[in-house]
């Protein structure tokens, strides 16, 4: 992964079948937020009011560095598989 990436994808692959069993897309940008910030001003009260209505559907789910996307994706993907009997192997590309 390029460490200036705005997007990242983490996947869980079953090593026996090769099938992708889960994935997480990490995103640092949202086109709706960008458009609203350009039109209303990022620091304006109007933008904050607009954002409160948009927050639940915003594409941004990562605000840290691009390099930390791997860790965040693994945290999200780890939880459902974190029970006895499942072995987890990580490989980030
Ligand atoms: Zn947004």
UniProtKB/TrEMBL annotation:
Species this protein is from: Araneus ventricosus
Domain Mutator-like transposase: 3-78
Protein name: Mutator-like transposase domain-containing protein
Highest taxon, organism lineage: Eukaryota
């Amino acid at each position: 992964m390029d460490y200036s990436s705005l997007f990242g994808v983490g996947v869980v692959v079953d090593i026996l079948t090769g099938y992708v069993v889960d994935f997480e897309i990490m995103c640092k940008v949202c086109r709706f937020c960008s458009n609203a910030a350009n039109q209303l001003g990022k620091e304006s009260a109007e933008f904050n009011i607009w954002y409160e209505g948009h927050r639940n559907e915003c594409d941004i789910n990562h605000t840290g560095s691009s390099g930390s996307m791997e860790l965040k994706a693994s945290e999200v993907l780890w939880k459902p598989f974190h029970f006895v009997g499942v072995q987890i192997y990580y490989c980030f590309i």
